[in-house]
Amino acid sequence: MIAIIAYDTGNTRNVKKAMDFLSIPNTLSADSGVISNADGLILPGVGAFGKAVEALKERELIPVIKQAAKKGTPILGICLGMQLLFDRSFEFGETAGLGLIPGEVVAIPENLGVKVPHMGWDQNQVTQSDPIANGFDQQSTYFVHSYYVKTQPQYILAESDYGVKIPSIVRNQNVIGMQFHPEKSGRIGLNGLAAFKELVSNGNYSRN
After folding, report:
1. Model-level pTM?
2. Cis link prior to 167 (omega < 30° from 0)?
3. What is the CATH number of the domain that holds 69?
4. Which residues are catalytic (predicted)?
5. How many domains are contained in the chain?
6. pLDDT tens, 181-203?
7. 111 inside domain
8. pLDDT digits over 86-139, tens only?
9. Domain, as residue range, for 150
10. Residues labelled as active-site residues
């Protein structure tokens, strides 16, 4: 069973609908016991980084998520949920994240001649071979964000060029992030959710 973490700042209902459409067993929950015992976790997110961290703290879910990551539970962060996986964000001041992937979240520069927020369909370029990124190369997915992740190349599976290279799929062993919304990205996005389900089912976290 994959638990979609419910904390009132994520696009949880649409993620659940996508999982249901794919017939992937899932539950929407903020219960620490359910989350701790899940075979995989999805952390959605829409809105501001600091507000999301506070919502997780109020529900006492940060140590639960960190412990799940430590024991090897596959975790997928979506959009803001992906950004929460990193060390810190500088959105409205500095806020600590979950620290599951090294890196930080910074604003998309406004002097690049592109509109901020980055909103709409944009193409992905796969930078590393990985089952999670299969099928995404040169394919477009749906983005909505004003901040992006800066991290080391070894953690980046795919990126999008928006005047600056924006990591669109990241991975650190069992911890995965998608900056775009797979649940809003048609067949390509659904394939990404299905690939995560296969990772959970197979218990194979290798990157080849």
Report:
1. 0.95
2. no
3. 3.40.50.880
4. 79, 181, 183
5. 1
6. 999 999 999 999 999 999 999 87
7. yes
8. 999 999 999 999 999 999 999 999 888 889 999 999 999 999 999 999 999 999
9. 2-202
10. 79, 181, 183
